[in-house]
Amino acid sequence: xxxxxxxxxxxxxxxxxxxxxxxxxxxxxxxxxxxxxxxxxxxxxxxxxxxxxxxxxxxxxxxxxxxxxxxxxxxxxxxxxxxxxxxxxxxxxxxxxxxxxxxxxxxxxxxxxxxxxxxxxxxxxxxxxxxxxxxxxxxxxxxxxxxxxxxxxxxxxxxxxxxxxxxxxxxxxxxxxxxxxxxxxxxxxxxxxxxxxxxxxxxxxxxxxxxxxxxxxxxxxxxxxxxxxxxxxxxxxxxxxxxxxxxxxxxxxxxx
Length: 256
Fold this sequence. Notes:
Mean pLDDT: 91
Structural class: mainly alpha
Low-confidence stretches: none
CATH architecture: Up-down Bundle
């Protein structure tokens, strides 16, 4: 598959993830009397990944997340030569999604971009539950670690074929159910970057100022998962034992 098609798929998939997930948070979470709440937002994020993985995964692998790309590289599932093009495409998709979301949300009278935050991620005063920076960091590292463990495990050649997007989508839903109160849930540096940059143009720089955590923590968790799963699964070529000798050779050795 040409790289140009792969990165286009990553752009579209990341756009869909951010538009669907953050869009549900901005437009539908607290809609008068019929808001979807945290559970609805969690499901929306899971559904975006599930649907995009089925629609585009056969083209690009369905990463839609710089941490996923780096975790797959650490697990020896993805070439280093394609990391930068993938990450750039993911970032562009997230920024485009945040821009589209702003245009939609701004169509409602009284909408304030800076006050809305476009579902940006944050800690301390900008955490939905006012959690500390340490709590936010631990949350993002641990949950991204398990997200990559699920991705690597469900896409393993020995796993049941065709079910990986379901497992991955449900995992992302669970992650959001746990961590929306802590950080608004990132586990995806692109998802954090798109809204933060658009909100900055609205006069609120706090999201960009806190963006460092939502790059470092998810990437750290993803890399750890890649290395751990490589060891757990025995996929590391260096750890593969030599094949056993044929029976005839074994018998000859015994006679000697």
